[in-house]
Amino acid sequence: MSGNINIRRDVQDSFYRYKMPRIQSKIEGKGNGIKTVIPNLSDVARSLERPPMHVTKWFGFELGAQTSMNADTDRYIVNGAHDASKLQDSLDGFINRFVLCGACKNPETELVIQKDGKNITRDCKACGKQTKLDMKHKLSGVILKNPPEKKKSKSKSSEKVDKKDKKEKKSKKSKKESSEDDEEDGDLDAGSDDEFTKRLVAEAAALPPVGEVADTGDWSVDTSEAAMAKRVAELEAGIGKSTLIDNDEEEDEDDSDNPYAQLASWIEEQDESPSDVDLFKKIKELGIDTKHRTLQVLGVCLFDENILKELEARAPLLTKLIGDSEKHQKAFLGGIEQLIASHEKLMAGVPKILLEIYQNDLIEEEVLQAWGAKASKKYVEKDVSKKIRKAAQPFLAWLEEADDDSEEESDEEDDE
């Protein structure tokens, strides 16, 4: 079973902000040489903001096994046979003792080695408190010898100025990119008591479920089977090449060799939804694993009316392909727009879809806000783009309000 899960598994709220990939295990070898490889350990460690070595060593201490790791090849091994559920249960212990704040139980912490060089504290970015680690545990000694990389520290006043400048720059950049497009065609606490989340959940509950037809007025997209078949044919023939190849990608190939159309056609031809492994192999084979347009194709072709469930299952692969690239994030949102345009029933569930994308850390908050600020005809008709953003308003309002509240809290801390 793949997909993201809550970092605190005792929290059942699906809107809980802090997520991590479900741990995977692969048993190799036989007899005395049997070992367990954890293929996604680096992704799990990254979501916890801890070095992979710390997590690997934890498993070694808790399971009484030798460990080995190679950061260059991203390979982490625990000797013996350990299934994923056993590793996941053990990881809960690591999270409780070395990640969660001792005061508010929030995972947004940073390990800080004290000046005496003998003690370690968890510096919580949520409540501001510092709580001590249990120095009796063997892993604490490992952390002292192998501390996490220090983040550049800034004064609160300089952080505020930087944040303001960053927002102004992003706002200008967003306006510029929106203009080019037209020319071309909160901190949640551990108990999930955050008022903004409660409000969004209530508003989302009042919306028709994803899959039910909503009255969205005049609709200009033909969603019949014949129209859908035509869309796929256009992708295959390269007729829709303007939407699948960006201007900065050279069009030195014949339409029939368009790798994006080939990927779309391959996905449509599968009897069942392809696995992440097969999908990634195909993308690598086509040589487009680093291209942002790949994310657009996946957004429109990989999902259907069950997108809420499918997004969580596909999150690890999408995270790998998107990385930290803003261009990739925008392309993925463009593909989602095209998907919604092709499935009228999804219009009512736009806030839920965006929330699922946000909760799985696929798109950054600033990118979502810039996307919602202005409609674009780059991926769909302008009137359809406006309708999608109008439907997204409950989510965008929550996002903006949560961000404003976070800034107010920062100002209050400075005043103190």
Automatic annotation (TrEMBL):
Output the Pfam families linked to this UniProt entry: eIF-5_eIF-2B (PF01873), W2 (PF02020)
GO terms under biological process: formation of cytoplasmic translation initiation complex
Which InterPro entries does the UniProt entry name for this protein?
ARM-type_fold, IF2/IF5, Transl_init_fac_IF2/IF5_dom, Transl_init_fac_IF2/IF5_N, Transl_init_fac_IF2/IF5_Zn-bd, W2_domain
**Locations of Basic residues compositional bias?**
166-175
> Which Gene3D superfamilies does the UniProt record give?
1.25.40.180, 2.20.25.350, 3.30.30.170
Key word GTP-binding present in the record? yes
Keyword annotations for this protein, in alphabetical order, are: GTP-binding, Initiation factor, Nucleotide-binding, Protein biosynthesis
Basic and acidic residues bias locations? 156-165
Residue stretches making up the W2 domain: 249-409
Q: Which CDD domains match?
A: W2_eIF5
Biased composition range(s): Acidic residues: 179-193
Descriptive protein name: W2 domain-containing protein
Origin species? Saitoella complicata (strain BCRC 22490 / CBS 7301 / JCM 7358 / NBRC 10748 / NRRL Y-17804)
